[in-house]
């Protein structure tokens, strides 16, 4: 095989436009790059400024370049008898065919391969498949992105890297890939077929690298072989060792292991506060800002406590990101510096783990709902099994419909065969559970913490001490889990898995499996009776969803497609007109589903008594799990439609994009503090709650009330600590407030406000050379600013990214912002926290409005009503503290390391004019604060940025 790797730069980013540069790299049979061809092409039209900005190719570059015909004369001979390769090859192939046609050549009829396909299959865990990102991950010098010769060369390197990786895979994996793509007669199928033939001709390969089981190659052996971290016969390594002695030893080891380790006063304080709470069996609220090193601040005392007392300590985070950071960075480092062996395991919700039995069944039976995409996902996962040690879906970069595929192969308690499953000893979920059982520290997340409480503590290993990181989210997560949350697809997906149609799905499959049995006719007709019931339930549910969606008004501050774009609170005392009719519709669902479930249970009972075949066993377990799910859904829907619990707030949300298909129903307790007290603070010996934002105006009172800690505080069971920041904010951050800035009512600005804001943002962005993030509280206002600001910046070579305007998830936009040189990023709610952009990439943070939650959000509204009944002021007791915590989170985006410097602009003059403004400013960690007229702002910012050292008086 000889490959030609092709890349064109063109005057348009879609399929129209002229070629302005061609690049070609030839890879010979021996996998060496033998030739690189590149040429500018004169397009005969001016190059748009956007393309020049992207590629760096100017009209001058192509003025004397060959014409398309001249370039093609040189290039066409190189395309003889090659496999054509490109990164997103369809784009370049379209331009190639067009050029061949225009210059009088025959079309290209050879094989075509796409490096994006190869990357997805070979490196299923890569964060992005963008050429620049991949090149830097693989360590290639891709020095001129978006120039054809450089892109072609980078793509050739990527292809070679993928081919090497594929050649190293076990034969059985290549055979599975080849079988997978065989039926659809694609160039990829042809490629894997060739690879298989080549591989089968080689002598027996290395069999030690993987575990082979039931025609799959895995990277893990049986979890039953995993033993405990320490030999119990050797006694406790902390016998007679005080916490101080333990810490002295750890510090010495830290200094040896880390070149730049320095003790931080705040971290030392955290060690002793956490130690005291665990030792005296008290609860602790501890606020630790960025740079404190809070993960180590709680992990070291937790390890000491756990090993010394021989009792697990549970650590819970809100985000998967933080969980991964602990697993990838902090725990491996601690393994080196703690003077004895210990074990820390990450244990997530069950749906994060792959069920090998379901996966094997799915690919053997080729149960693919969208074949083209499902082949790919299956291929990614077959390769991933040779790499993963955890089977955790967070490792996979699944695109498109990959998420739907995952839902059909994830581990679930309802469909688990337990010890009778042939995959039991290889099972990823049971491995994680076993490891958690052996561990000293178990890292989980807030969601699983509450799922465990609801499941009567059957899911997590027993624990008495708990550390909750990112604790400012605890109350929110508690509400979601202790309440009810149901989506349109919750019911539809479950029904579809029973019956995709009358011939496909779990029940029809059972019918065909039982076909040889003496009772098969009777059982088959039972299954046939269930199908119309499933169809009927779906029809009624569609009708109900449509009607419910029709009740929703649109929210003014949400972005299009956001789930909460349409939202409505339902009050038990003021049910919408015709609610009774809707309850009648729900009753039809309740009765029909009940009928379906009864018939299903009866069938399974009969089959179970009569059958002893493993194949049916696993199917029966799956179906019985789905029937249990339906029973839960039926009861939840009834609870929601009845709306008769006075302590619950009911509401619905949807997005305009998918309308009733995006419907979500919520029923959440208004106040979870009593339940938190009851489930956690009264039951556990010690709970440490930490976050960068727990205090408001230097007091923890708001959190104490929200989380149900009053009693602990009164009984002297609560410690609190506010750690000093390790950063010198006075020197590193300047906060500017333009005191004459116009104010806004509601979520939309008037023309004068928008005009002033755009003008000021553009001037500031030019002074800070982009590198600026602007936080909005309403998507409408972000849209108002986007176009005029884009125009104002375009002449200064500063690009603009807007959440909801430019495509991409939060992490993709953040990455684009970090990679680009001069960019301004506009974000709403989700950018206020959890975005980490250290260093030069972010110099200026602009906060357009103080982040008050919309007062009409159902939960906020219900909490306010409750406070009014208690004769308290909801604005001061709830709205202000919540907004202050979000404001502190937003401010925290700016200074991420001891070397970062930056500016925060607060355009909302309420911080200096309103009586509550001081709470916002006093809660910040001490930046230099100045207010001035808007016109004085940019000169002051430029001066401050240029003279970092003069300000240190």
Automatic annotation (TrEMBL):
Its EC number is 3.1.-.-. InterPro entries: ATP-dep_Helicase_C, DEAD/DEAH_box_helicase_dom, DinG, DinG/Rad3-like, DnaQ, Helic_SF1/SF2_ATP-bd_DinG/Rad3, Helicase_ATP-bd, Helicase_C-like. It is an enzyme of class 3 (hydrolase). It catalyses: ATP + H2O = ADP + phosphate + H(+). Residues 760-937 form the Helicase C-terminal domain. The keyword ATP-binding applies. A motif (DEAH box) lies at residues 469-472. Its cofactor is [4Fe-4S] cluster. One of its GO terms (molecular function) is 5'-3' DNA helicase activity. 3'-5' exonuclease. Keywords: ATP-binding, Exonuclease, Helicase, Hydrolase, Nuclease, Nucleotide-binding. PROSITE patterns: HELICASE_ATP_BIND_2, HELICASE_CTER. GO terms for biological process: DNA replication. SUPFAM superfamilies: P-loop containing nucleoside triphosphate hydrolases (SSF52540), Ribonuclease H-like (SSF53098). It comes from the Bacteria. This is 3'-5' exonuclease DinG. Coiled coil: none annotated. ATP binds at residues 288-295. Belongs to the helicase family. DinG subfamily. Type 2 sub-subfamily. The lineage of its organism: Bacteria, Bacillati, Bacillota, Bacilli, Bacillales.
